Amino acid sequence: MAPYDRLRAGGSPRPLETGDTWWYAAVAGETAGSFSTRVRTRTRRACLGAVLLLTVVYAGLVLTATGRRWGDAAVTGRRADTAAATLLREHPSLAGLTTFSLAAGCVLLLAVGLIRKRYALTGAAAGALATALALTGLLQRFAPRPRLHDTAGALVPSGFPSAQTTIAVGIALGLVLVVPYRLRALAVGAGTLWAAAVGAYTIASGRHRPGDVIAAALVVLAVECGLLALLARKGKVRPGPRRGPLLPGLPVTVPLALLAAAGLGAGLWLLGDTLALPATAPYDPAELRLAHRCGQALAAGVTAATGLVPLVLLRRVDVDGAPTPYRLGGPFVEAAGVQRESELVGPFTEDLDHEIS
After folding, report:
1. The whole model's pTM is what?
2. Interval 48-97: pLDDT, tens
């Protein structure tokens, strides 16, 4: 329990309002554990929701024949999408650039936390990324699924979920813990846009199906929300300052919100048409191209929404270190019968004849 989560002396607790700070929570009377409890409750629910959505994606796109056929069509349709095929053909260096950006992102995540001397939070962010990667590897290796073979009859390794997308989204959401509170929206929004680009490339290059990218984003979201719930349980969260990170982050959060809305809307709109593919080949190239664009839209929309969820959950919530201890002292507290077990620090002197003029 955080030191500012104390019982309120009389009356019923009220929720925090605009302008409230950790000082208000400590002095004016947040109920014991109320702020931390509210943060823990909503992050825990987000974690369970991400796990539920991951289960639905796995059951619908991996275990059903229709879902597998749609994923295969989305990957095959990249050849029918001339714009994506031309971009990859004219810029073969994108593969190396993607790998380099993932390595640079990991270094950046660690460097920001270490430079700011947030060692515990940096370790937590790195641990969350490692946990998400471990879960991704376990799902790829042990999750039950039909055995897939290529045209030559060789067994195709599973790409569900996508490891590249897991790293990219894990870096983007890990910035929540290491960047300053005022720059949180800017950093997480920019990182999520980059993660969406990484996911789009893996689909366009044929390395992963759209369901692999969607599942990777949900795995990272579940791990990050679980970590935030644990931090709230330990009392490591506090109300943020009055001026939040909204304005500095608008240049990236607005495009991110538009990408989430447009991607999910367009993807769900096209999904009904692309699921009606015939059970066997040959397929119409126009249908394959539509399936590819539908998969790209859904993957981009889910990835963008994944970046917005922590920003919404942690609105006016600061995880950047513990608050400075502060307790009221002086004649008014002494008159109330407070035991003088330790030194009380406050805005009033110890002179009982103190007069406010």
Report:
1. 0.81
2. 999 999 999 999 999 998 898 899 889 889 888 888 888 888 888 888 99
